[in-house]
Amino acid sequence: MDALILQLLNGMDKGAAYALIALGLTLIFGTLGVVNFAHGALFMIGAFCAVTMQRILSLSSTVIDETQKDFLGNPLKIEVPYVQSWFGDVAGAAIQDWSVPLSILLVIPVMLFVGWAMERGLIKHFYKRPHADQILVTFGLAIVIGEIIKAFYGANPIQTPSPAALTGSVDLGVGLGFEANTIIYSVWRIVYFFFAAFIIAAVFAFLQFTTFGMVVRAGMADRETVGMLGIDIDKRFTVMFGIAACVAGLAGMMYAPILSPHYNLGMDFLVLSFVVVVVGGMGSLPGAVLAGFVLGIVQSLSSMNEVKAIIPGIDQIIIYLVAIIILLTRPRGLMGRKGVMEE
To pair with 256 at 20 to 30 A between CA atoms, which of 56, 80, 156, 215? Predict the structure, then answer.
């Protein structure tokens, strides 16, 4: 039972990542009608924003330390990070340690700009083109972004540690009524789950309770009628593209300590994210979130040794098997709307 609960927890944090990516994808498809195969690349850019922030905070200058001598008695030259020079040793070290959470200061403006540039520079020219054209051009863009990342950061994964205070594990077994040391779980994965839950709640609250969000939801339902009311719905949809890019970027930023960023990270999540969107129902935001958590939990449970002993390799294909079963029984997905992607 303790192993089962541990896998459920693993599935929840993995599902949180799937749900965040699928949520952004569905926002783009629901507002603009664009199938964005470059969305996984936005997740990757967010992860590399965390890497970039870590490197920025590690920039240093060479100073002479009179308190340290070499074997000849000469003062040593040491590298002192600028943040420690500016804020002091203790505060500077703390800022460096919390580089991943602080990356939000970089991720939000970068992802807003990237989303705006993608939508205005490329995506807007494919609004009325077939979905196959949209897939081809955005998939090509994802490859280009991956190669740019490879050129600047290299091909090897880059470790991006979480803050020391949030590193390590906690014993959840005692709180759940089990013996001590039965359910040991990563602190950062717990943080990631609650972070994802907050972002998802914030997006839904924004769409549900703000005037801007209400107009966007109306535009998603009937774009022409909203336009006839004198509302520039295209401008609002461009803003939503930027918000969707931010959601993907934030998901990637916080996932960096869990899975070291590398140039192919976007492709790794690309197919899975689209499976999640299709299973949840194209254009359905609640469906995308529900499917993300369901498929994350299913994938995690299938990775148990007891399951793989019965069906070797099942953890590699279980998501696609579940997707096939759901789509055979519910062709529109779990919460899909009639008429979406059916023309």
Answer: 80
Residue 24: both structure tokens together: 């952004």
CA-based radius of gyration for the chain? 23
Where do the structural domains in the chain lie, given as residue ranges? Answer: 18-58+76-260
Residue that is written with structure tokens 């090509």 in the block = 140
**pLDDT digits over 259-280, tens only?**
899 998 888 887 888 888 888 8
Is the model's pLDDT at 53 over the cut of 90? yes
Report whether 101 contacts 54 (CB < 8 A).
no
Q: Which amino acid is at 324?
A: I
Whole-number Å distance between alpha carbons of 279 and 276: 5
φ/ψ of 243, rounded to 5, equals: -65, -40
Placement of tokens 């790794």 in the chain: 268
Could you tell me if 7 and 26 are in contact, meaning their C-beta atoms sit under 8 angstroms apart? no
Q: What is the pLDDT of residues 280-330, one digit of tens each?
A: 887 788 888 888 888 888 888 888 877 788 888 887 888 888 888 888 888
Are the beta carbons of 84 and 65 closer than 8 angstroms? no
Tokens standing for residue 296: 């994350």
The pTM (predicted TM-score) of the whole model is 0.87
Strand partners, 77: 64
Residue 249 pLDDT class (50, 70, 90 cuts):
very high
Q: Where would I find the H helices in the chain?
A: 2-32, 39-57, 82-87, 89-97, 99-102, 104-121, 131-153, 187-209, 211-221, 223-228, 233-255, 265-280, 285-302, 305-310, 314-329
Burial letters 68-97, b for 16+ CB under 10 A, else e:
eeeeeeeeeeeeebebbeeeeeeebebbbb
Which pLDDT tens digit goes with each residue over 136-172?
A: 888 899 899 999 999 999 989 999 999 998 888 887 7
φ/ψ bin of 293: left (φ > 0), alpha (ψ from -120 to 50), beta (otherwise): alpha
The whole-angstrom distance between residue 88's C-alpha and the CA centroid of its chain comes to 33
